[in-house]
Design goal:
Length: 573
């Protein structure tokens, strides 16, 4: 039978003493947790182990002896270590010894109370206590019912180390009758700065929670539910991002303890995302207010808007002629061209009316960068939407007119075939028409058919302009979603301490020699970067329509409106 001994690598240089740990009979394995050094009193050791067992609910006991002799092996010490097996009474009694600077260890077992002692093959497995403790590969500590089922699995090893945290609270600087060697024996891992931040975070979180509850109460008030404010709150990207960040602040400032690893990682990812977002926003704000860049930007904005308006006027003049040699319906072409030219004239007047206030508006907008880079990007997206509002109006006019003609032609085409659309049953039924109905339908079909190329050309041009604006806004929102959803803390943790995000374990053979125990090294397999992003990715407020190419082409052909993104609660056209 194979006996597996899990030995902590931090104890390989410990002085001679006794091994304390847990015996797992289902696996015929021994998990060594620490080494107790000489001198000690056996009664005190038993009392200490009883207290640890009462607090951790883990059956911790003395499993054997550890002999680390840098000189030649002393017979008196080896006999004394063997005699300890009669005091602590554990079967089998494990004896591990390291002889001088030799890389080979000897490991044997004693079975004094067994009538038929059998020689067992021993596998010595080294493990890093710190990585096993922090890898979170063990089952949750509150799942007591599953421990009996997992007793024969490798998770029992991780569960034993994780639940023995009380054993690792004492170090060699603590005054006491018992001296231990474990992964924190050189000093409990802690930071004065971290402890001070923990103490200071309590009043800060209480104040932040009060302010957030006040802001959330204002946001949920009935004032924002009236038509103009509710419409702006649901359509402006800035309002959506502000509500999203308020939810993040509520999660971070909550005094409720995280129940599991995923909730803890979510809080940490949100905190790091907020920190980096605000830092980038402050850097952007400092760059904008340096060397009067806002004034230069305001001076450049009006000429750019005039240039865009002039280009649109030239485009409309080209469409009112013979674009690409196409012969259009002159009457409809002139009506549509003058209609859109009048809108451009109104837009230029609107821009020049706002020109004295643009620098002041940009100055106050730049202050919003202190709330984060994402807020500044959302405001930029809203400014682009306002500056290209005339293009959106052109697109809506052309799309509605084109859609009206397409549906009219499809209805009149069914009239030719003796069909009609049944609204109640949502299907096409047969129908008999009079001669007058067929005549009027033929005239209307002919008129709509010959006017369709002119309308389709205007619709195509303004759809391309609208798609250009949509692509720019989509890229901005992709960057916002990247900052909002990227689990930066998890990625940094994967880069610096990969064992904190463990996916499993692997064993590497250290040495194998006849007559010596097989020595293995247990290593932690970390999650891949793609799995980290997929597992700990944060939700975002905007959901981009992932339509197929066939669905997108169908929308373009039928003249349905296309939006760059769809917010929560919006209905898809």
């Amino acid at each position: 039978m194979v006996l597996k001994v899990f030995f902590p690598s931090c104890c390989s240089s410990a002085d001679s003493g006794i091994l304390i740990g847990r015996w797992i009979s289902e696996q015929n394995s021994a998990v060594i947790l620490a080494v107790v050094h000489f001198p000690f009193i056996p009664v005190q050791v038993k009392q200490y182990l009883g207290e640890v067992q009462r607090m951790t609910k883990v059956s911790v006991s003395v499993l054997g002896s550890w002999n680390n002799s840098k000189q030649e092996k002393e017979e008196s010490l080896s006999e004394f270590l063997e005699d300890l097996g009669t005091i602590f009474c554990h079967e089998p009694w494990i004896q591990i010894s390291k002889e001088g600077d030799s890389k080979f260890w000897s490991c044997s077992t004693l079975q004094k109370h067994s009538k038929n002692p059998q020689e067992e093959e021993i596998i010595l497995v080294y493990y890093d206590q710190r990585k096993v403790m922090l890898s979170h590969l063990h089952p949750p500590l509150d799942t007591a019912g599953q421990r009996a089922e997992d007793a024969s699995k490798l998770s029992a090893i991780f569960d034993t180390v994780a639940r023995s945290q009380v054993l690792f609270m004492t170090d060699r600087y603590d005054e006491g009758p018992i001296k231990l060697t474990h992964w924190q024996s050189d000093g409990v891992e802690a930071s004065i700065i971290v402890e001070l931040l923990k103490q200071a975070s309590v009043p800060a979180c209480m104040l932040l929670t009060f302010l957030l509850s006040l802001v959330s109460g204002i946001c949920r008030s009935r004032v924002l539910k009236f038509w103009p404010l509710s419409f702006l709150w649901s359509k402006l990207s800035t309002c959506e991002q502000l509500g999203h960040r308020l939810q993040h602040l509520q999660v971070v400032s909550s005094n409720k303890k995280a129940q599991n690893q995923n909730q803890l990682m979510r809080k940490a990812n949100i905190f790091v995302s907020l920190l980096i977002d605000v830092t980038l926003g402050i850097l952007l704000m400092s760059w904008l207010y340096r060397k009067n860049r806002i004034g230069h930007l305001a001076e450049t904005l009006i000429p750019v808007a005039d240039h865009v308006a002039e280009e649109l006027q030239d485009l409309l003049q080209w469409l009112m002629g013979a674009p690409a040699g196409l012969k259009m319906n002159r009457a409809l072409d002139q009506v549509l061209g003058r209609f859109f030219l009048y809108h451009i004239h109104l837009w230029i007047s609107y821009i020049h009316l706002l020109s004295p206030f643009i620098e002041m508006i940009l100055w106050y907008v730049g202050l919003s960068a202190c709330l984060g880079l994402t807020m500044a990007l959302c405001i930029l997206s809203d400014i682009i939407a306002l500056l290209t509002f005339h293009i959106y109006c052109f697109y809506v006019y052309g799309a509605r007119l084109y859609c009206l003609k397409i549906y009219g032609l499809s209805s009149l085409w069914r009239l030719f075939r003796g069909k009609k659309w049944n609204v109640l049953r949502q299907r096409v039924d047969s129908c008999s028409y009079d001669l007058d109905q067929l005549f009027i339908g033929t005239l209307l079909f002919t008129i709509l058919l010959f006017l369709l190329p002119t309308t389709a050309l205007y619709y195509l041009v303004f759809t391309l302009l609208r798609l250009l604006v949509v692509i720019v806004q989509g890229l901005i929102h992709l960057l916002v979603d990247l900052i909002d959803s990227l689990p930066l803390y998890s990625l940094i943790l994967r880069l610096c301490r990969s064992y904190r995000l463990a996916a499993g374990v692997k064993f590497r053979v250290l040495e194998q020699q006849d007559g010596k125990p097989l020595r293995l090294l247990m290593q932690i397999n970390p999650l891949s970067y793609g799995s980290v992003v997929q597992t700990y990715r944060l939700p975002t407020y905007s959901c981009y329509p992932r339509d197929s190419w066939a669905s997108l082409c169908k929308k373009l052909f039928l003249g349905e409106l296309i939006y760059p993104w769809k917010h929560k609660g919006d209905k898809q056209n």
